[in-house]
Design a protein that fits this description.
- It is a single chain.
- Helix content is 31%, strand content 28%.
- By secondary structure, it is an alpha+beta fold.
- The strands form two sheets. It has a six-stranded mixed beta sheet with strand order 9-8-7-3-4-10, with no helix packed on it.
- A hairpin with a 5-residue loop joins strand 8 and strand 9.
- The longest helix is centred in the N-terminal third of the chain and has 52 residues.
- The chain is elongated, with a radius of gyration of 31 Å.
């Protein structure tokens, strides 16, 4: 083989190696681009879900016995000697209103509605809270000796129905959530009071 043939052969080899190298580099670049695109899509989806849940994340509810040391006795509606009750508080700390607010509360021992019932609260304006007092029992007084989370249903300004459970976890309402509630929901209306609540149904009561 002449020197010229060796040169041509060497050039072909280098060209082939260059082509393989180019394919390899291209493959790495393509993989990185696809990975970056997938990560960007995931980040966008995460941001969208966070925005979707943003208002709902500022809504919560809890209850406390009025004879508990943790109950605020400084309010104008507290009076010495009143029978103990459970005060349920709903806080809408978001910048938008919420509607169809319902608390899934324990029912005092002896009621015919079963172990739990629905307490209709209705509408809450932005940056507001609603307090409702309901009859107590020995069992409930023990359960609410300290402020305890209450399961709550509500609808946000997007029309999404949310459910926050008794551990504070937030879920969009679904049949799966419905299946988790082992007992039928019995409606327990708040006690009536003259004038009702601002923005609420007539006859609903807040204290």
């Amino acid at each position: 083989m002449s020197a010229l043939d060796w040169v041509n052969t060497g050039a072909s080899v280098f060209t082939a190696l260059g082509t393989v190298g180019a394919f390899a580099v291209g493959g790495v670049v393509l993989y990185r681009d696809r990975k970056a695109t997938a990560e960007q899509r995931q980040e966008a989806a995460t941001r969208a879900e966070m925005e979707r849940r943003r208002q709902a994340s500022f809504v919560t509810a809890w209850g406390v016995s009025t004879d508990s040391e943790h109950y605020d006795r400084s309010g104008p509606n507290f009076a010495v000697g009143q029978p103990p009750k459970i005060q349920y508080t709903v806080l809408n700390n978001s910048d938008g209103p919420i509607s169809d607010v319902v608390l899934y509360v324990p029912v005092p021992t002896g009621r015919e509605t079963g172990p739990r019932g629905n307490l209709n609260v209705g509408f809450l304006a932005p940056q507001s809270e609603r307090r409702v007092k309901e009859p107590s029992s020995h069992d409930l007084r023990l359960q609410f000796s300290v402020p305890s989370p209450i399961p709550i249903f509500f609808t946000d300004t997007q029309g999404i129905v949310w459910f926050r459970d008794g551990q504070g976890a937030l879920y969009e309402w679904s049949d799966d959530i419905d299946a988790r509630l082992s007992k039928p929901l019995a409606i327990v209306e708040p006690e009536a009071a003259p004038g009702g609540l601002p923005g609420g149904a007539a006859g609903s009561r807040g204290i």
